[in-house]
Amino acid sequence: MLHAAWRSLLGRKLRLLTSTFAIVLGVAFVAGTLIFTDTLDRSFTSIFDSSVGDVVVQPTGAQQSGAERTTLTVPAALVDRLAEVPGAARADGQASGSGVFVIGKNGRVVGGQGSPGLWRNATGALAAGGVQPLQVVRGEDPQGQDEVALDAGTARRAGYGLGEKIRLVNVGRRAVLTPRLVGIADFPDGGSLNGASVAIFSTPAAQELFLQGRDVYNSVWVTAADGVSQEELRDRVARVLPRGFEATTGTKAAAESASDLLQAISFLTVFLLVFAGISLVVGSFLIVNTFSMLVAQRSRELALLRALGASRGQVTRSVLFEALVVGLAGSAVGLGVGVLLALGIRALFGRFGLDLSAQSLVIAWRTPVAAVAVGVLVTVVAAYLPARRSARIPPVAALRDDVAMPESALRRRFVVGTLMVLAGVAAGATGLFADVPRPGYWVGFGALLAMLGVATASPVIALPFLGAVAAAYRRVFGTTGRLAGQNALRNPRRTAATASALMIGLTLVTTMSIAGTSAKASVDQTVARTFVGDIVVSNAIGQAFSPEIAQRVERQPGVGSVTRLRSAETRVDGERAFLTAADPATLPDVLRLDLVAGSLADLRGESVVLSQDKAQELGVGVGDSIVLRFPEGRTRLRVVGIHDAAFASYLTTLGVLERGGYPVEDSALLVSLAPGADGGRVSDEIEKATADLPILTVKDQTEYAAEQRAPIDRLVLMIYALLGLALVIAVLGVVNTLGLSVIERTREIGLLRAIGMDRRRLRRMIGLESVAIAVLGAVLGLAMGLVFGIALMASLRDEGLEVTRVPWGSLGLYLVAAVVIGLVAAVLPARRAARLDVLRAIEHE
């Protein structure tokens, strides 16, 4: 039996090629994702290992970067005290943070898109374990107020050399800095910044620029003496620390910093693995169809094996053995393609500022294990049903001229599929409307179950559609159309299974089309309804900017008022909360906030205005108080109003954030014009006033709405690109099904040619059959995508996405594309059928 299975496999290499290709794509996604994320993990872990001392001392709750960045500092006197701790070789005050970006000679920001612009002071301290951190390797350390050193990568990309004046954009009180470049920094022990830029200042300059001229630091590195462990030194340091400060070992500090960052970008792994799963699900339909038709074509051979004494188990195992070989081959190739995919993903993220080129790819043991396990498991499971059916062929069937494969009852498939759809609807509703952990998993599982249920029931669902297509073909194309319609109806299970692969891809494309179009329409509605100002000034790279910018804008002729918006991250009742702060005196000039309770005039002192949804979630009303955990300690804010706008969940004053320990940095400026001012002229004046700051953009309401829509367009486009692979697999499924169908009907095609059907009509017949399959998949996919898309947007109404819009034009194009796909998929099978020798075809068994 093993010898027979090998001969069967080797005799059908080309027929199994497309099935193997489906496995290759799915496994490549899995392997590529795991390789890329492991590489990312190793790279960031290496960075953080070289950015901490043996023991790190900082204020409790302090953060130097991100939305949680604080103004908490360590006094210089404490540094001297820590240097005298027994077991400490030295202690160095570290002034560091983010928000300084280098402007290259071409006038553009270096990095910025996702990669931070960091700053720090120059010290001679070693990192944890004696590792040499980023330090000046060419030139000299900066000494004066107007001197700076840059990391080698940033200096190269910006085009600056030693001795040149450079330009820095700063989030501090001075918006633009023009120091002289005196040093080039790098990692002597090897390392990378992953695209980030670092500006190194002298300690007095860093304190003057970023710490308001005070003799303080953001943290302290305590270096352990020989023979003293990090834990021992931490315990000794902790005993001399005053209240409000904490000591952490370098190992723990590095792990926590890396863990926080990797957790923030963990969605990349989930995102890519989801599309790997989609490719594998779509590919499984292709594999089921391929093995079903191959088993059907080998039915006489398998029946003869049964007649010669082979057991059912032997027949089943021989088919599964073929599937195992296909799965192993596809997994091996997929693993190799996964390495190339990981390189491609790394290059793609490099274009957005996350440069991992200095880190070699990490292929952990789990990657090949997962790749082989996934590829083999999917292939064997997909081939199990055809293998089981092959074992049911009775030995006596070998005595007949034709062997009929046993088919499952369509009624039973319809009942099972219906139950799966109902279970999927229940799971999706649970995730959307019930209070359950990980609701996204419930919704995703429900959608998958519903799609598989429709695929299971599709042979019955497809019968009316295929009947209508057959009737239309007969009227339009005559005898050729009649034959094409009958061929599509001949085996509804095979036709529906082939169409189901296309259905899944188009279901997801349609859902994303509705979600993307609706999200953009919601953004437009929110901007039109809420923003009543005239001009928006914001940072093109999504970062905060210096408060000096607002002062420049206020001085421009024609400006009526400037409302500063600031944001910060904190916690309320242990949950993460994002605060928005503004001046309530000028806020009504630029934003329409319809309060359902309270008054915006009461927003002063320690107070807050909540969105209606957030007030309901917290169970508070006007007059109640909520407690927020700020860097400077817990703060109680009184609720003075509740609004129903799609704006800030927590709205407070600028003073609350400053007193709470957050830096004075603006995230956006909303400008209203003075009476009679010309908007275009005022915008031009603001652009001139901020011309030395290329990170800023000046927009009117229409341009602002377009800017808010841009990330949605990019996300949807990326999803389309990933779903395109699933559609490629689906097209291969149509090609494979038609190709195997031509082989299966070789004698029938020969007879048709013998009685007068020419090659052109034969190609047309196969093309029409292919179009019927593609359009069936498109109709099912569009229908399900409509349901999923509308349900998804209904569930997101509470998140501010209030508009549901169906892009009918795009859906029409998808249907036209399905017809084109059908015609293209039929080219090779139709060409093969047309080239068959008539006499040999008639003699074919």
UniProtKB/TrEMBL annotation:
Broad class of where this protein is predominantly found: membrane
GO molecular function: transmembrane transporter activity
UniProt keyword rRNA-binding, yes or no: no
Keyword Cell membrane listed: yes
Keywords: Cell membrane, Membrane, Transmembrane, Transmembrane helix
Entry GO terms, CC: plasma membrane
Domain MacB-like periplasmic core residues, every copy: 19-239, 495-688
Segments traversing the membrane: 16-36, 267-296, 319-343, 363-385, 414-434, 440-473, 494-515, 717-743, 766-791, 811-830
Domain ABC3 transporter permease C-terminal: 274-395, 722-837
Location(s), subcellular: Cell membrane
Membrane-related topology note: Multi-pass membrane protein
Superkingdom: Bacteria
Family designation: Belongs to the ABC-4 integral membrane protein family.
Protein name, entry field: Putative ABC transport system permease protein
Organism: Nocardioides scoriae
Lineage of origin: Bacteria, Bacillati, Actinomycetota, Actinomycetes, Propionibacteriales
